[in-house]
Amino acid sequence: MGKTLFDLGDTRQDLGPSEAVTTVERAGVQVVDLQFSDMAGGTKGLTIPTAMLGFALAHGYRFDGSALTGGDRHAELDLYLTPDPATLSVFPTPAGPNRARLYCSVRRHDGRPFPGDPRSTLERVLEDAAAAGFDIRVGLEIEYYLFRRPGPESGGVPLLHQDAAGYFDVGAEVVTGTRDEIVTTLQSLAVGVGGAHHETGPGQEELDLLPTGGVAMADQIMTVRQVIRSVAARRGLRATFMPKPLPDAPGSGMHFQQRLFGYPSGGDLLRERTGGRDGLSVTGGHFLAGQLGHAAGMAAILCPTVNSYKRLNAGHRAPRHARWARVGESALIRAPEMGEDQPGMLELRSPDATANPYLALTVAIAAALDGIHRTESPPEALDESLVAFDDAGLDRIGTPRLPENLGDALAALAGDDVIRHALGDYIFDLFYTRKWAEWSDYRRQITPWELARYADL
After folding, report:
1. Is the dihedral angle over the CA atoms 77, 83, 87, 91 positive or is it negative?
2. Residue-wise pLDDT tens digits, 109-143
3. Do 14-113 and 124-452 have matching folds?
4. Among 243, 411, 260, 209, which Cα is nearest to 316's?
5. Closest Cα to residue 306, out of 433, 218, 437?
6. Alpha-carbon gap, residue 193 to 457, rounded angstroms
7. Stretch 289-304: mean pLDDT, rounded?
8. What is the pLDDT of residue 168?
9. Tens of pLDDT along 80-114?
10. In this model, does residue 328 exceed pLDDT 90?
11. Which of 168, 184, 138 is nearest to 364 (CA)?
12. Is the pLDDT of residue 21 over 70?
């Protein structure tokens, strides 16, 4: 019998600390990068010599905690990186020593998780899921644009189309070569790539990742963003995960393809067995209802930039309403028909790749668990294309809209106790304060559109 998607997607190595040290020594690794996520989802890290790896695995590696919170000098300064040996990747570098990389969680001096660490926050929510008898697996579709870097001939235009190909078109050779290098590089770094293809927009690409555990998926998203940017830059291109870089072209999303299994039994809990409806099990319906019910409260985490809402409000299959469907890609959550031998899947379509992947998965899972805990039931599936309804029509059938902008999303987050609890006070307070400052700064800006339209009034 061949491998399943889950076998192929589970790329984490079964390594303990001593095996990790042995692996890097045998590979001739001279330096090791210890990487972690800051609050915004950016990659931070430091480099240690291979001789220090055993110590770091056993005791953690002390670092300046203000790096985690974006330079806040009032943050706890003495924190410890705890490398995860299962994330070890070894890769040669042409112009330097062989390197290894491990992702880290952040701990306090006594070993307790630091409440401002996004990775530890996701670990905590997944532990809650396991304690309730659930194992959540996540696959991914991540979209991005490739642009040509502007030269003197560009006339100051910052984003130049790389190609005019369409959905699943083969595209230009430079794009195909870039895509091939991205895929092979990610495979060498133990990322479970399922496929890659051209998307609908000019120069827009999609990369698919195979389903795996929540922390492993978030780690892989961090790797994917780094690799795509790096490979594109080497080929003279500029990669952007900006949700809406072009006003008249489709935006870029990051869709979570969620599966739910029993823990430790492993049985599929999403598909209808007895007592469900619309092809979903009773538990699957509760899972779905939880995410629909917390759609507004999650939005600021899943769609954390001013630009995110220009994607959601522009159509082009982006979700605008908290509704689900079996067909119709403008729904917030899609429950596609799966083959008889495949487990059920719920695709959450609002997130974009500017989100911190650890926090995005944290709130999505917390919302689903809340729906299960409260035994909530979802509304009927709406399989017509949502873009065919005007706002008044959707209001009449009770379809709530997602927040219109970052300010509305932050207000919804502040009022959602379940999502706030999942994040914890430390992360919520810092995230809310910084994002509200970002929103306030944006509202003060005078845009070229306003000047062109109103300057001569």
Report:
1. positive
2. 999 999 999 999 999 999 999 999 999 999 999 99
3. no
4. 243
5. 437
6. 54
7. 99
8. 42
9. 999 999 999 988 676 677 899 999 999 999 999 99
10. no
11. 138
12. yes
> Whole-number mean pLDDT of the chain?
89
Considering the domain 124-452, what is its CATH architecture? 2-Layer Sandwich (3.30)
Measured between alpha carbons, how far is residue 249 from residues 18, 21, 145, 246 in Å?
Answer: 50, 48, 11, 6
- In terms of Cβ atoms closer than 10 Å to its own Cβ (0-12, 13-18, 19+), residue 434 is middle
pLDDT in tens, 138-187: 999 999 999 987 654 444 456 666 565 554 445 566 788 999 999 999 99
Report if pTM > 0.85. Answer: yes
Angstrom distance (rounded) from CA 333 to CA 141: 14
Mutual angle of helices 295-302 and 425-443, in 10-degree steps? 70
Other Cβ atoms within 10 Å of 266 Cβ, number: 11
Single out the residue of 181, 180, 121 nearest to residue 362, CA to CA.
Answer: 121
- Residue 204 tokens, joined: 């827009």
The rounded distance, in Å, linking the Cα atoms of 403 and 392 is 16
Domain ranges of the chain: 14-113, 124-452
CATH number for 14-113: choose from 3.30.1370.110, 3.90.850.10, 3.40.50.450, 3.10.20.70. Answer: 3.10.20.70
Tens digit of pLDDT for each residue in 361-402? 999 999 999 999 999 999 988 876 555 666 677 777 778 999
